[in-house]
Each structure stands twice: as C-alpha cells, then as structure tokens.
Design goal:
The strands form three sheets. This protein has an eight-stranded mixed sheet, with helices on both faces. The protein has two domains: about 180 residues, HAD superfamily/HAD-like (Rossmann fold, 3-Layer(aba) Sandwich); about 100 residues, 2-Layer Sandwich (Hypothetical Protein, Haloacid Dehalogenase-like Hydrolase, Chain: A, domain 2). It is α/β, with parallel strands linked by helices and about 290 residues long. Bound molecules: magnesium ion (MG). Magnesium ion binds next to loops. The site of magnesium ion has 8 residues, from loops.
C-alpha cells in the first residue's frame, strides 16, 4: 500500500474491538507514526472519555501529540494539540439551548409517532451535545459490542414491517427530517441499524473541519489522506453507515478502506479489506516501516 501523510480513522470496531478492550496495541501502532510526523485523526461519534479511557492523547509525548487530531460527537468537538501538548480547539457544531431543545422535541415526536401510529416502542437517549440516539431495538442488548453486525439490519426491517411501518429505515429518516422542519431545525439522521441517531452534524462535519485546519495550517492536500472505518455498508436503500459520511466533497478523491467482513453494498470507491481491527493495525505498522 502507498504511503499516506494523514490517516483518518474510526475508533470502535476499527481501532479497537470494544471500549473495554485494552488500547495498548493501537497506541503502540500509532506511536511511531506520530513520532515520524504522520498525522492521525480519530473520527468517532463518541466523546473523548470513551476513547482509550479518555487517555489517548496523554499516551504520547507533546511533540508526537502535535500530530494527533480528534473529530468527535458527530461534528461537535474537533481538536488538535500544540507543541506544548495543550489542546487546540477546531471549529465544531455546538447548538444553543433553543436549537438543542428543538432537536429533542423532534426526536420525541418521532418516538411518539411510532408508538401511537404503529405500537412501535423506542428508547430515546437525550444527553448528547448535538444529537439524540433512538434505540430501535430496545430489547436487544449489544453488551460491549458497539458496532454494526450484519443481522441487525434485517431484524430492524422485520420489526418495522411487523408493526405495519413499511417505509423502512429510509422512511424513519424522512420522518425525522420532516419533524425537524416543523421544529425549525435541520437534522441529519444516520443509523447503524439498532440506533437511529438524529443530530445537527455527522462525521462529514468532523472531517471537513479537520481537513480545513490541516490545509490552512499544515499545507496538507487531499491526495495525502486516507480514511478507515468499519461502517460504510448500505443499511437500507440509499442509506449508508456512518463511516460513509467521511466521504464529502472535500475528501471525495481520497482513499477509503473498510475493515468490516460483512458483505453488501458500499459507496463507490470504498475498498473492502475485511479482517477488522487487525487489518487496520497491520496497515499502521506497515506505514511506520516505510515512513
Ligand atoms: Mg466503527
């Protein structure tokens, strides 16, 4: 594989198998690259404290840390680090109280609509900074595993159909958008099948903000960048997983790799490599050898 100057990657399911799994291997694979000046950007829907126990950046000395970036919380929080090891905030999408409550209202209306019209119950998690998580399968506990599993797609589709909702996940997106319009808020839904996430931003906003920062401050070009994830797969007609949202107008010509073994349709240009976290770790180790 060719050598890249900037590697953007998803965390859960790409860099680590679960949040409680030790992060030693990924830290060990990242360290020589950061030391050699390769830029690494973690792009994850979660918050900083869920990434290597909130200690990932602190695992690297300040000069290496200056090559590390985070794009978190569906566009909410982006950061880099200065040569002194201190955080440099990069623009993120954080709503004011009014917009956040309009988003909450939108998600509750969707929940209420499904319950009243179809007897379909969901669970809504409200405590995120700029999105809500709507659990479409509240009776199924994923346990430690936070990432997409092939069977969940069919499960959700079957459950929706059984309740008389025939428009599938695509239909849920449309409902979320239309309830959002009623509340004067533009929402961007995504899904990993079990959870429908309705928020103000997506991974697109994270990668665009970090790309802009890198172009401006480090002279980085799209040609040096690659992107790694495990959720590019089409979940419902025309609806792709959250990692597919790393493909934006700005990044469209970059290289995209998928470590998921699940068969199915992916956005054009995404290369399925499979073999999960191990594939990504071996890529980082190869890159360190040639860096
Ligand atoms: Mg993932």
């Amino acid at each position: 594989m060719r050598k890249y100057g900037v590697i953007f990657f998803d965390w859960d399911g790409t860099a680590v198998t679960s949040r409680s799994a030790p992060a030693d291997e990924i830290i060990g694979a990242m360290a020589p690259l950061l030391e050699k000046g390769v830029k690494l950007a973690v792009i994850s829907g979660t918050s900083y404290r869920n990434i290597a126990g909130g200690k990932l950046a602190e695992s690297f000395p300040p000069p290496s840390r200056a090559n590390l970036y985070f794009g978190l919380g569906r566009g909410a929080n982006n950061r880099g680090y200065g040569g002194d090891g201190k955080i440099i905030a990069i623009d993120g999408i954080l709503p004011d109280k009014k917009t956040l409550s309009a988003l909450h209202r939108t998600c509750f209306q969707l929940h209420e609509h499904l319950l009243e019209q179809y007897g379909y119950n969901t669970d809504v998690i409200f405590n995120r900074e700029n999105y809500c998580k709507i659990d479409l399968e509240p009776d199924i506990d994923r346990g430690e595993r936070l990432y997409f599993n092939g069977g969940e797609r069919e499960l959700v589709d079957r459950r929706l159909t059984r309740h008389g909702f025939s428009a599938g996940i695509r239909g849920l997106f449309e409902l979320a958008i239309s309830f959002g319009e009623q509340n004067d808020v533009t929402v961007k839904p995504t899904t990993d099948a079990k959870f429908l996430e309705v928020g103000l931003g997506t991974k697109s906003d994270n990668v665009n903000a970090i790309m802009r920062h890198l172009e401006k401050n480090c002279g980085v070009t799209a040609a040096e960048c690659c992107f790694w994830g495990d959720e590019y797969l089409e979940i419902s007609q025309g609806v792709f997983g959250s990692d597919a949202l790393m493909i934006t107008e700005k990044t469209a010509n970059c290289d995209f790799f998928d470590v998921s073994d699940v068969r199915g349709k992916r956005p054009p240009g995404v290369k399925r490599l499979g073999n999960g976290v191990n594939r990504f770790l071996s890529f980082l180790r190869e890159q360190a050898e040639t860096a």
